Amino acid sequence: MFRLALRKLTRAATAIATSTGSRTAVGGGFSRGTPSALSAPLSTGIRLYCAKNIPNANPVALQMINYALGLARSQKSDESYAQALLVLEQCLSSQSQEGHDTTIENSKGMVLLAISTLLSECGNTDEAIHTLLRIQDLTSSSVGIRVAAVESLVGLNLELGLVDTSSVLADNCLKLLEKESQEVGDDFSFKVFNARAKAIKGLVELVQCDLESAKTFFQVCEEESCIGNAALSYGEFLHTKRDFNSAKEVYRRVISGSSEKKDFSDPFALAACNMASEEVLLGATCALGQLESHLGNFGDAEEILTKALKQAEEHFGSYHPKVGIVLMCIALMFRHKATSEHSSSLLIQEGLYRRALDLLKALPLETDGAKENVDKRDIVALARGGYAETLRVQQSRRDEGERMRSWAQAAWRNRRLSLAEALDITEPCFKVPVIDARICRVL
To answer: pTM of the predicted model, to two decimals?
Structure first.
């Protein structure tokens, strides 16, 4: 019966893909109309993707990708994701297995990017990484696809805390673009992908708290008009440097661009996993809300972070760890507001921290190796540090707060600022923590 359902799904996807008059697909996500470039005649689509560095893929494969993404996100259930992944595997196997034709390999590469995205959304990070690594074998695929794959690999490894691996991957991406520049020169598409490669290396340096090194890589974002992930990472760099006005302008530009574009319909914004456009939009909205809080604009901060919370719940569902990260940002905003206004919001903060830790699946304090093996350590340590402060001021719960505080301090690894500095933002020379919701790290 399941195989019969799969065949029906695949036939439906193919029917949608081959119908040039169709304007809607099944499910959510990409279901609000077929991108105009893909619904145009075949010759128009090929002209759009004809540049050397830009993916020139089979339009049928692209529409099946959009169909599968919409199917998975329509219900956000294990079954809907499993069915979507089977459709994508069917699409992948339908591509020619012979030769190294660029169009075929681009089609395969884009399908693999879509598969890795769905695996990442399900929390299956290891399989997502394995899928992205398969793109390395597509030696004839366009530079745009390979850059998107490496960018996603870096993002997932940063989320896992594997910074050294991320740095090596980012260096390899830079070497790829250096080689490409010798062949094609500095055309527009090369500049876009070169900026993305340098920005992802800059993000790695930012995670390692080396702001001077990060500055050298983000220099390209000052000279070129960066988009998507490159622009968001640059905005976070400016944010950590306390250039709030410039950071705010970049965040707003990212939000505007991410709201208009979808990954598989814009060849320059092609991305996957935690670097996909939905994640960029969430990350930029969350970062902008934090920035307004750092400026003391708590009304604006609450409104923006509430919007980020809605985005996270709509895209991932109400029980996803990314929802917990946004809740923690809201809790920190209330903490900063209470400190600045000499007010109290302990019950609100405690509830937000507790819920965030539940969604982040934080292990109990007494668990062996919890400090060393905790997933999303930066975020959990900061959340427990904030939670501890709400407990320590309550006489009856002071001991509990002290134990939680001790755990958070031992787990904290950020070299740019201490846990106390991250929690107690005070003028005039304060350092600000910037939480990157894409990679689940405190910058």
So the answer is: 0.83
Residue ranges in 78-208 assigned as alpha helix (H): 78-94, 102-121, 125-133, 143-159, 163-184, 188-207
How far is 424 from 436, CA to CA, in rounded Å?
Answer: 19
Whole-number pLDDT of residue 144? 86
Distance (Å, rounded) from C-alpha 404 to C-alpha 434?
A: 22
Separation of alpha carbons 86 and 88, rounded Å? 5
Amino acid letter, residue 386: G
The pLDDT tens digits for 362-415 are 888 876 555 555 678 889 999 999 999 999 888 889 999 899 999 999 999 999
Tell me how far apart the alpha carbons of residues 132 and 440 are, in angstroms, rounded to a whole number: 20
Domains in the chain, please, with CATH? 1-138 (no CATH), 142-275 (1.25.40), 296-442 (no CATH)
Averaged pLDDT of the chain: 81
Alpha-carbon distance of 46 to 72, in angstroms, equals: 28
Sequence-distant (≥ 6) Cβ neighbours of residue 312 within 8 angstroms: 282, 320, 322, 323, 325, 326, 437
